[in-house]
Design goal:
Shape: globular
CATH superfamily of the largest domain: YVTN repeat-like/Quinoprotein amine dehydrogenase
Helix content: 10-25%
Number of domains: 2
Bound molecules: sulfanyl-(tricuprio-$l^{4}-sulfanyl)copper, dinuclear copper ion, calcium ion
CATH architecture of the largest domain: 7 Propeller
Radius of gyration: 26 Å
Oligomer: single chain
Number of strands: 39
CATH topology of the largest domain: Methylamine Dehydrogenase, Chain H
Length: about 650
């Protein structure tokens, strides 16, 4: 097939961009990659008539019915997280995290700014973010419904979201890390098995930088390095970091709390594309958590620049003796992408990306290497099946099957882990590949219902596709991306629905709805600055004015608020309504203020009253038949 002829004008830029990537890969001898792309274009051509198979009645969510699952997903470079109901695909909520959100006032209120971080002048330190991975906190090997954690790849920040309110409550910036990509929560303490819940979050640094990154070594990337970071889930403070050879991409953790791992596509420590693709195999680096923490306790660490975070040496030269090593580098297929833990707790699967294989690593054997009982790290590999082109991420059904996204083939491949292990041992009759299903198009992450817990239930798989091309009405140059929902409960995979995603789908988790327990009404006393009848009103100290306001439908507590031009005004608003879902807004024209207060919640803003006039402070959130009348005169005297 001549690939030039389907370089249509409608998506020419995208196609030619991909061809650019391709020709480089092809030049490096990856002929198979080219074939994969052609196959995907054929799919694109016939995609219009490839109607989804009819959904079974049991999969339809009628009006008024509730979904069975929550999906918590990242939103890519939009910087937020999302909550989607499955199987309906209805968007339930967008949780602002690293982005600003004018509807709820994230990035506008003093409280949200304090979480996001500010500069000396009170403005936000960052307003951009790039979220890729959302993972929940665990107890007993499954989600406990307490927290979600999400990364910001741009500014290397980790955020925590409370699952009861589904709001971000803490953000920490990782020192000496650039390109914080993969993250995973731990599921147990490596030593104290009574702590069978999440207390740590592991964060992989993808990009090499000078350490510290203060202007030194700019012209010598060979001196740069990457760190693997451990954050205390409760306090959100850094516990330790581990310097490694190569880089971190995605992260997985074992169920017993002893091991964490990161796939490495740049074992070459290279600073350019060709260099990063020069080695025949790369690695999955395992971290021995107990040993790292013992070194930290014994004071056997260094620090980098002004950071006080203990840094343990996980580079190969310092870790050649298995009995004392803190890291183990297991060779895997070329430029691997995702690393995922199987729900039986036995294996990690690393996808090849530039190799058409998945590498299955047995954790027992990695542990054996650390105990000096396994000769080579490579002996921890128990299977390496050929599964298709451009494998990225793997999900599980809890029945022994793995589902890997194939970016170049535009497919999801279902394969059996035990069969792959048997084949690796020499069983030529082992049937590894069970089924390949086309997805539309070019999948990145996939994830299954409860698939990253011991309660993997094998009901649904979500395929987060990077391109939708012809699947939806066009909306300008950027098509919406596709989240495809696949029913994996039967013998055959069945496409149930196409859902849109803006933009762009990365990782997510699918959580049974009974695990999530939200609260609808805040406790007013949780807010130290709550406004109550006894302290409501205006208080002035020089040119600092504190306006303490209450809301109760359909009115604010003060019909007139008068300040002077030049005043620094802090406006604090407490919503005294106690009725579920009775939220009020608060907008102030020309002062760039807008936020909401939920029942019994308090929020505040601080601004300079730098221009005189009459401004209607009004309620933006429909709350009452007299919602439009819910407004006060905010008067600034010249
Ligand atoms: Cu594959 Cu950033 Cu998880 Cu996206 S990464 S796809
Ligand atoms: Cu209060 Cu609308
Ligand atoms: Ca490589």
């Amino acid at each position: 097939m001549d690939s030039s002829k389907d370089n249509g004008v409608d998506n020419g830029a995208e196609q030619s961009g991909r061809r650019g990537f391709l020709s480089k890969s092809a030049a490096l001898g990856l002929a198979g990659v080219t074939l994969g792309l052609v196959a995907c274009k054929e799919e694109a051509a016939k995609g219009g008539e490839a109607a989804p198979q009819k959904a079974g009645a049991s999969k339809e969510i009628a009006p008024g019915q509730l979904d069975d699952y929550y999906a918590f997903t990242s939103a890519g470079h939009g910087g937020e997280a999302r909550v989607v109901g499955l199987p309906s695909g209805r968007t339930l909520k967008r949780i602002p995290v690293f982005n600003t959100d004018c509807m709820v006032g994230w990035g506008v209120t003093n409280e949200s700014k304090a979480i996001m971080g500010t500069k000396a002048d009170g403005s936000l330190k960052y307003t951009t973010g790039d979220t890729h991975h959302v993972h929940g906190s665990y107890k007993d090997g499954t989600y406990d419904g307490r927290w979600l954690f999400v990364n910001d790849k741009i500014h290397s920040r980790l955020a925590r979201i409370r699952m009861d309110t589904m709001e971000c409550d803490k953000i920490v910036e990782l020192p000496n890390v650039m390109g914080f990509h993969g993250l995973f929560t731990d599921k147990c303490d490596p030593v104290d098995t009574k702590i069978n819940y999440t207390t740590r979050v592991f964060c992989g640094g993808e990009f090499h930088i000078p350490l510290p990154n203060d202007g030194r070594d700019l012209d010598d990337p060979s001196k740069w390095g990457t760190l693997f970071s451990c954050v205390n889930a409760e306090t959100m403070e850094l516990k330790w970091q581990c310097r490694i050879d190569g880089n971190n991409d995605l992260v997985a953790t074992s169920y017993d709390g002893k091991l964490a791992a990161s796939n490495q596509y740049n074992t070459e420590n290279a600073a350019d594309l060709n260099g990063m693709m020069s080695a025949e195999r790369d690695a999955c680096v395992f971290f021995n958590i107990e040993r790292i923490e013992a070194l930290v306790k014994a004071g056997k660490f260094t620090t980098i620049g002004g950071s006080k975070v203990p840094v343990v040496d996980g580079r190969k030269a310092a870790n050649s003796d298995p009995k004392t090593a803190v890291t183990c580098y297991v060779p895997v297929g070329k430029n691997p992408h995702g690393v995922n833990a199987s729900p039986d707790g036995k294996y990690f699967v690393c996808s090849g990306k530039l190799s058409p294989t998945a590498t299955v690593i047995e954790l027992k054997r990695v542990q054996a290497w650390f105990n000096g009982e396994l000769k080579e790290p490579r002996d921890a590999v128990v299977a390496e099946p050929e599964i298709g082109l451009g494998p990225l991420h793997t999900a599980f059904d809890g029945k022994g099957n793995a589902y890997t996204s194939l970016f170049l083939d535009s497919q999801c491949v279902k394969w059996n882990v035990d069969a792959a292990i048997a084949q690796f041992k020499g069983d030529k009759t082992a049937k590894v590949i069970i089924e390949k299903m086309d997805v539309h198009y070019q999948p990145g992450h996939n994830y299954s219902s409860m698939g990253e817990t011991k309660e993997a239930d094998g009901k649904y798989l979500n395929s987060g596709n990077k391109f939708s091309k012809d699947r939806f009405l066009p909306v300008g140059p950027l098509h919406p991306e596709t989240e495809q929902l696949v029913d994996i409960s039967g013998a055959k995979m069945r496409l149930v629905a196409d859902h849109t995603a803006y933009s762009e789908p990365h990782d997510g988790i699918i959580v049974r709805r009974d695990i999530v327990k939200t609260r609808q009404i805040y406790n007013m006393d949780d807010f130290p600055n709550a406004v109550k009848p006894e302290n409501a009103g205006i208080e002035r100290h020089g040119n600092k004015v504190h306006v303490r306001l209450m809301s109760q439908a359909p009115a604010y507590s003060m019909p007139i608020i008068k300040v002077k031009k030049g005043d620094e005004v802090t406006l604090t608003l407490t919503n005294h309504d106690k009725v579920e879902d009775l939220t009020h807004g608060c907008a102030l024209p020309t002062y760039n203020i807008n936020f909401i207060v939920n029942p019994q919640e308090t929020k505040s803003v601080t601004f300079k009253a730098d221009h005189a006039g009459a401004f209607w402070l009004y309620c933006t959130h429909f709350c009452h038949a007299l919602h439009l009348e819910m407004r006060s005169r905010f008067l600034v005297e010249a």
